[in-house]
Amino acid sequence: MHIVCSDLEGVFIPEIWINVAKKTGIEELKLTTRDIPDYDVLMTRRLLILKEHHLKIKDITDVIAFMDPLPGALEFLDWLRSITQVIVVSDTFVQFAGPMMEKLGRPTLFCHSLVIEPDGTISGYKLRQPDGKKKTAAALKSLNYKIIAVGDSYNDITMLKEADKGILFRPPENVIADHPDLPVTTEYNQIKEMIENFLS
Description:
Elements: E1 2-6, H1 16-24, H2 39-52, H3 57-64, H4 73-83, E2 85-93, H5 94-103, E3 108-116, E4 122-126, H6 132-142, E5 146-151, H7 157-162, E6 165-169, H8 173-178, E7 184-185, H9 188-199
Parallel strand pairs: 1-2, 1-5, 2-3, 5-6, 6-7
Antiparallel strand pairs: 3-4
């Protein structure tokens, strides 16, 4: 039996923080795990920026409400779910994910949570577990599943390498250069072909 473990942002939906950066004009919020491999360093920086600019959870969820899945993403996800099981394994937060999960047909999602104060201030975050993407793939392998993993950023690499088949999707050049052993795709049909070949 097989399970696909896929990242969310950059694979099925646009990067949330980049869209928040565009809306607010705060350039530094454009930094993602494509730029900074250490997730804790990245999130600590983001929280400081939110505090500095007095941004609250509603400022972010208002941006997310107007976001749509990437072109072709829903059709690709529907195809995936028609042939195998899919778990979206993301470093996003449950407070962000609701509207996007609705638009994607509510796939199973493993993610983190934010610490939100009564006034809506985001004061921290709670990881579901450290290196949760890799541990998800490893746990499913221990149940005798064959794992296909798809991601685009540094924080996906351990999951991709733990999987029986890891696939990069539209990664930046720095990620490609640092991990030349992983196959690179730029279109959903290319992932589809790789998955079909793996399952055959």
